[in-house]
Amino acid sequence: xxxxxxxxxxxxxxxxxxxxxxxxxxxxxxxxxxxxxxxxxxxxxxxxxxxxxxxxxxxxxxxxxxxxxxxxxxxxxxxxxxxxxxxxxxxxxxxxxxxxxxxxxxxxxxxxxxxxxxxxxxxxxxxxxxxxxxxxxxxxxxxxxxxxxxxxxxxxxxxxxxxxxxxxxxxxxxxxxxxxxxxxxxxxxxxxxxxxxxxxxxxxxxxxxxxxxxxxxxxxxxxxxxxxxxxxxxx
Amino acid sequence: xxxxxxxxxxxxxxxxxxxxxxxxxxxxxxxxxxxxxxxxxxxxxxxxxxxxxxxxxxxxxxxxxxxxxxxxxxxxxxxxxxxxxxxxxxxxxxxxxxxxxxxxxxxxxxxxxxxxxxxxxxxxxxxxxxxxxxxxxxxxxxxxxxxxxxxxxxxxxxxxxxxxxxxxxxxxxxxxxxxxxxxxxxxxxxxxxxxxxxxxxxxxxxxxxxxxxxxxxxxxxxxxxxxxxxxxxxxxxxxxxxxxxxxxxxxxxxxxxxxxxxxxxxxxxxxxxxxxxxxxxxxxxxxxxxxxx
Lengths: 235, 293
Prior knowledge:
The complex is a heterodimer. Chain A is an alpha/beta fold. Chain A contains 9 helices and 10 strands. Chain A has one domain: 3-Layer(aba) Sandwich (Rossmann fold). In chain A, strands 6-7-8-3-9-10 form a 6-stranded mixed β-sheet, with helices on both faces. A 4-stranded antiparallel β-sheet of chain A has the order 2-1-4-5, with helices on one face. In chain A, helix 6 links the parallel strand 7 and strand 8. In chain A, helix 3 packs parallel to helix 5, helix 4 packs antiparallel against helix 5 and helix 5 runs parallel beside helix 6. Chain A is globular and about 45 Å long. The mean pLDDT of chain A is 93. Chain B is mainly alpha-helical. Chain B has one domain. Chain B has 11 helices and 2 strands. The longest helix of chain B has 33 residues. Chain B is globular and about 60 Å long. The mean pLDDT of chain B is 93. Classes of the chains: A alpha/beta, B mainly alpha. At the A-B interface, helix 2 and helix 3 of A face helix 6 and helix 7 of B. Chain A: Belongs to the ABC transporter superfamily. Chain A: Pfam families: ABC_tran. Chain A: Keywords: Amino-acid transport, ATP-binding, Nucleotide-binding, Transport. Chain A: This is ABC transporter ATP-binding protein.
């Protein structure tokens, strides 16, 4: 079974250190939610794992393979896909072209694209449409479908439901549940408590670039004080 | 005075100029669009193409068409290899820093120009056209080679368009142009894309140099004017916009031809400069560019 291990991850923006030894462990078929206030280092953690922000310390392994220090383009080829904050679609390209870039990453076949489109059927009618002309919900679905086309063993999701209508939120959550059932390990940065409680298996709370606590979802449900303490939210 | 022959001649000359300009400016625009590099050395790749055509003409015996055909393939490939090496040796090492690339391509300009002076000499050298058939019109004869220039330029631009729109390489280039970081998230080796784009941009300029040399001779200083005109085209068309670059090259090439025939080449140069000034004042993103958000 897939296992991603992050140990003592450190990262900087210029001279400012923003991650101070972040450690996480994630198994296939598990959804680990990363929660914390703005500026806690959640997005930076994902970017550091992807190599688009070069870590200054620590170690990242996937099924025992050391990914630390690999060029950013090698990380997705190893099986880690990323849906970044704000979706970052190639908005001048069509939906089909965006998905093709996902398929190219690890040489996945069109069956993978079909599976992704089964999760987001609305995209089937939009294949020739430019991504920038899709609605917000459709863009989020495309960002997820594009990442699924990579054929990932680990999927990093950075607030995939931000700013979406409830119907689109439900579609995205259903897709996450399906990925978990298919054995994909999901690291989910999420601000919506109800989403975390619905799809998460564990919650890691971040504060000032450090993991402060890591609890099974049942404990988070049972102790609302955890959310209040680390995120300032009530259930 | 019957205007028709003058108008036809002006349009033909304008089309020839627009064709060469289109190739050179497309190379510059492609490099800026994908890499965000203002390549001040771009005109030198044009010059190297022309010098390469002369070398091929000297080295290959027989009818001029053979040497020219070889030059049309070999010179752009050789210049592309030089550009690829320059990217890896210089631009990649400075991380494609915008200011640093301007300074380093100025340095590259002098290295290439002075190398050509040392190896090729200070004299302008003629290359015979591959064929010298004259097309007759009711008013004047016109070199069929000049129309060949237009045809080859259109074919090369069409090929570039097809590569960008219909191939995996083109998709990768467009994705990299749009968002370098996200492109890496899909396994795209951005550094390799940049090397390829820099080489393709140089090859387009070199092809322009090969095509133009039977008309205006090869010379080690011939890269300056194409560079300046390419900047004019790229600014008017919109930085990084390939359709804009094509449209602006046609606009400036034709206006240059018309003004040169009916008035003077100096007025044509003034008009181009004025057009750039007007575009920068009233539409700084260029005719086809997008305004910054």
